[in-house]
Amino acid sequence: MKSNDSVSKYPGQTRLALRNIDEIDPHKIGDYIDRDGYLALGKALKMSPDDIIKTIDDSGLRGRGGAGFPTGKKWSFVRAAQGDTKYVICNADEGDPGAFMDRAILEGDPHSVLEAMTIAGFAVGATKGFIYVRAEYPLAVSNLEIAIKQSHGKGFLGKNILGSKFDFDIELRLGAGAFVCGEETALIASIEGRRGEPTPKPPFPANSGLYKKPTLINNVETLTVIPMIILRGATYFNTIGTATSKGTKVFALAGNIKNGGLVEVPMGTSLKTLVYDIGGGAPSVFVGPNKVEMKRAVKAVQIGGPSGGCIPASMFDTGLDYESVKKLGAILGSGGLVVMDEKTCMVDIAKFFIKFSVDESCGKCVPCRIGNRKLLGILEKITSGKGAESDIDELVNLGKTIISTSLCGLGQSSPNPVLSTIANYRDEYLAHCGIKRAEGSGVQGVTPWCPAGVCFKKKAKYCINEKCISCGRCAPICPVNAIHKEGEK
Amino acid sequence: MKVIINGKDFEANAGESLLAACVRAGINIPTLCYSKSIGVIASCRVCVVEVKGFNNLVTSCNTPVSEGMEITTNSKRVLDARKTVLELILADHRLECLKCVRSGSCRLKQVCEDAGVDKGRFERNREYQHLDCPNKYVRRNNDKCILCGRCVRVCKNNSEVGVLAVNGRGFDAYIGCAFDKALETVPCISCGQCVANCPTAALVEVDRLDELKAKINDPNTHVVISTAPSVRVALGDGFGLKKGTDTTGKMVTALKRVGFDRVFDLDLAADFTIMEEGTELLKRIKGSAPLPMLTSCCPGWMNYARMMHPELLPNISTTKSPQQIFGALLKSYYAREAKITPEKIYTVMLMPCVAKESEADREGINSSTKYRDVDMTITVRQAIRLFREYNIDFANLADTDFDDPLGLSSGAGLIFGTTGGVMEAALRTLCEKTLGKKMNNIDFESVRGERGLKVAEVPEIKVGGKPARVAVVSGISNAEKLIQEIKQDPSKYHFIEIMACLGGCVNGGGMPCHDGVIQNNFANAMERAGTLYHMDKYNKLRRSHENPVVQKVYKDYLGEPNSELAHKLLHTHYKAKPKYTGGQPK
Ligand SMILES: Cc1cc2nc3c(=O)[nH]c(=O)nc-3n(C[C@H](O)[C@H](O)[C@H](O)COP(=O)(O)O)c2cc1C
Ligand code: SF4
Ligand code: SF4
Ligand code: SF4
Ligand code: FES
Description:
Chain A is an alpha/beta fold. In chain A, 39% of the residues lie in helices and 14% in strands.
């Protein structure tokens, strides 16, 4: 069965995480083995756990689930933690609505994740692994089930793996699809059968995680490259990318873009390359019965999903790595990348993402539960033309407080879309509030308007005045044929 | 370990939280969700502080200190953030502070005042809902709930049943029971711990004070009140007295001023409980009924046992609780002595407890008349409000003694108010009865103290030739663990005292809600216990069987312990109770 037809074939990519996608039949373990599958496991079992961790550490791999924490360091924490029982969890909750690389990997290359988890188990001293996968991914679930069975059959899972003394087993746990359940402590609560609510850190899962035992949690995309790093060595990986962000990253291109889908590029690749060279820029829009082509320019991208921020086209020289993106008020996150063209209203976009956070907040802590709702209220006020400049200031103030006081990463990042759009498009906010920057300094009051023409659905109509010389040029380009000669219909 | 708090060096203890260190350094950080006995929840976020090296603010209640940490508790950033968080809470809170039973003891109000909240920046986005009405004992009002999560935690961790939970999510999250059923229709044991721990009036006990006032004003009704042991060391909390102050004399004066016709001491009834329960135990040891015998005086525990462990009912002492013994005696013996028809007597019990009302209300508990033996119970919180309403300057009252003929009690009855007290009182009487002589030392230290489980061997009492083994547990969760143990080995213990609230009645669900120094709430209860032991120590009368009133009532009226009349009035039987009933959903 084919896995995913949205994996982009456009040139200019470097396929590490997606190396096997569409190259193998995920139902055939033989296909995976033919492409060096499970060789890394054999190699790892002959290495010392410390050497394995050192290799991962040297590779410079950082977590692809959002926070970008160095993977080797995380493994060493779990290895060092005291405890007779330890667990490995693969975070396959993939909550960012714009991202689907984890699904592609689980569906198209499930064995790479199983192999990585087994290596991780050996390295940190765990004998049990869980994959927390969202129930909305039925194909991923069934492909994983098949893969686990086949892996058992070949002795890659179970007792005395490949003749060693090491036992490891993997079970699936289905998530109900709440975004917050991807947060590691909420995920653990959910596996334990408790309400999927984050708990404060410390204690960190590495010391007290699942059933209060030391627990390693890694993202799917993080795990999938592990076998390759073990097999080919750290330098194979760390020679790709930037000084602090090694290897490649998969992005999910979506929104107003010609070539959407999953693309994998080296860390540090510029947004320009990604959006224009690979993505082909924003598609034209054909409007009206005459299908007039309207070329659209890319205005910005929202990167990192609802927790991320927007980066305007003027900053597309930015290389995509953890630090550079963070500097711009966004996050790399799981790699969701929504392209927006000039007809996108940034206030409206901010409202859209805040709405998502309001819906997905677990409701445990005050700033996120109530604060985001208030942000939404203020944005609604602004997009209905009732806002004032003080409301924009309140968005910033409140947004910053939500970030600095929320319990988990959801609340700590939820105002990012608001803050980054205000930082880059304050004039658009002001326009909605009926304020226009006049020449020089100072502002001037005008009727509230939406520069992108998205908000204020009931717009005043345009009309033609007595200066019209009946040239007729406007009529054919009107997308809705609203202009006609006097007396004609 | 050295840390720097607001620029000053401070010696912190390894492993303690920033909050604990700051409190020790004399810095009051506001808290809403944290409570020492409940533990870290970290939902309210008002305890934030700034720690050098962290981008975000840090909640002090859950963050442990580390070497050299630089903590700032009062920077502009911190103070503004706290204020904002509180303003967010207030935006959707039902602000009817002036007509709220918690207006004087609202933690939220206190914290807002401390944080300098002086305006409401945010608009409300919520329609107000309704009370969870059908319940008879505990009422919920989510319009005042700040979702701190304390009730959820205490209901699970102390009371084991875990019937309260967060339903829904995000802005629409709310506290409720499974499937939105009413509290009364799920296995709530009415312990009131959720009420005592709620920082606002989102959880309150049902209030019948208007009914009480009408009775007091009715010249044809003889209204008597008796006061439970732990109440006298807790009332002072409502009037600014030192924690654990003995206010027995003031309490009696105040109750008289409110207009009660008689004020009696419920500790006396505890002495009766000991006489009956002790005799029952000796009979059980001889084989009359199964061992171990479990105490029955805590109604929270009885609600739990009837719903969750009906198989244990034969092991539970048939002796009534002091409250119900007193109710029955008031409407029989006392009515006869005072020459008042029992129907005209209205019996009120001042209790540290919410579940006591469910006990008085229980079908099959009454034995004196066709009416309730105990007409009403009120909590310590309600008594405090009543005294205020009646213009009573409690702290400066002169002392009054309890009324005769039911006002004299022993130190044994007094220590019923704390975990281990019932056991110790029983052992005093049982040991001396078995030995046939007075003992010099009647302090049973091994069953005292705040530990959840205490066990002891009692060489004076023999079971099958060997010393009797006794156990004392408080907190239903601790009790559940013990129950699992005795299921494995039924002969492990012979006599077990069980209290639903951790620490016993001194930490009861009807006690004053924990005030400003949240981090010390359990310590408050232990202060109260300390006073009770102190009062017992200096009491001339320390053994239930030596109480002359007890002796007189047996001689004149009941005959002897476990007599036929005693059985009719002072004993009861228990029926299993369904866990879920078909009450209407919210
Ligand atoms: C609200 C929220 C949602 C998250 N969702 C996911 C997710 O869907 N998948 C994921 O791998 N990590 C998610 N994370 C990050 C995890 O908490 C965790 O950091 C990650 O799984 C660690 O793996 P890594 O080190 O390999 O990135 C989420 C974090 C937050 C705060
Ligand atoms: S930040 Fe939001 S999602 Fe995270 S714990 Fe708080 S309410 Fe829940
Ligand atoms: S009264 Fe006790 S059992 Fe009932 S909800 Fe409150 S804490 Fe739980
Ligand atoms: S009902 Fe009270 S204790 Fe429970 S969450 Fe609400 S405010 Fe907190
Ligand atoms: S978060 Fe610390 S007291 Fe509530």
